[in-house]
Amino acid sequence: MKKLIFTLIFFVGLSLPIHSNQNVEEIIKGRKAMFSENYQNAKKISILLKSKRIEEAKPVMEKISTNYKKLLNYFPENTKEGFNTEALPSIWENKDEFNALMQKASDDMMKLAKTVDTVEDFRKIQKELMWNNCSSCHNRFRAPH
What we know:
Shape: elongated
């Protein structure tokens, strides 16, 4: 019986979201840090592409993509308020739409990394595959600041 209980506890623990061991403050600050890192990296990409340092920009694009995927786990119900979150309630009210936008942003960053070698107008492709995703999210899911 003890073995069965231990096994059940083990498997239930595996199925909990990644954030279950973090407190609300850590989760909110973690997501803010990832969004901030993505913004800083997006600016870095712009500089690298303008300087035609395409190969240096690609790993930065991949990092942003990875962060967007991680962010899917950083909006549990108990993190709607506190710690200067700028997340609007619309995230939780439209969770599927928000998650789809995070996934699209991740996918678009990988698409940018694959197509950047073949384009002449870096600003146009960046706007389409990077900056437009930022704007879409900010307009719908982030408090003005």
